[in-house]
């Protein structure tokens, strides 16, 4: 159980770092708005997390439908958070 938790946590940390890097590149390097930067960072990071956890943490197979539903739902949530931040003029 501890080994499973360690794998899951490690992938989560990498996922967060990937999200931050992609967000920063989009926002500061490509000069996109927060909603698009957050959405791009999220999609790339969560894709990594989905496949890495399936393979290395849970030894599970993935399906295209499960992946698309997960990305669609979570991506919409992420874009909404970015949109609210843009409309509220919250700093990144």
UniProtKB/TrEMBL annotation:
Q: Where are the transmembrane segments?
A: 12-30, 36-55, 67-85
Q: Does the keyword Transport apply?
A: yes
Coiled-coil blocks: none
Q: Which GO terms describe its cellular component?
A: plasma membrane
Q: What does this protein do?
A: Involved in O antigen modification. Involved in the translocation of bactoprenol-linked glucose across the cytoplasmic membrane.
Name its cellular compartments: Membrane
**What Pfam families does the record point to?**
GtrA_DPMS_TM (PF04138)
Similarity comment: family membership: Belongs to the GtrA family.
Tell me what this protein is called: GtrA family protein
Q: Which UniProt keywords apply?
A: Membrane, Transmembrane, Transmembrane helix, Transport
Q: List each copy of the GtrA/DPMS transmembrane domain by range.
A: 7-73
Q: Single Gene Ontology BP term? A: polysaccharide biosynthetic process
- Membrane topology of the entry: Multi-pass membrane protein
Give the matching InterPro entries. Glc_translocase_bactprenl-link, GtrA_CellWall_Glycosyl, GtrA_DPMS_TM
């Amino acid at each position: 159980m501890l080994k499973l938790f360690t794998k899951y946590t490690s992938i989560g940390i990498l996922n967060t770092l990937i999200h931050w890097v992609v967000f920063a590149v989009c926002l500061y390097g490509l000069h996109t708005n927060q909603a698009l930067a957050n959405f791009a960072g999220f999609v790339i990071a969560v894709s990594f997390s989905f496949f890495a956890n399936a393979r290395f943490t849970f030894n599970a197979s993935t399906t295209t439908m499960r992946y698309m539903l997960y990305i669609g739902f979570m991506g919409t949530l992420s874009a909404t958070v970015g949109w609210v931040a843009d409309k509220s003029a919250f700093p990144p």
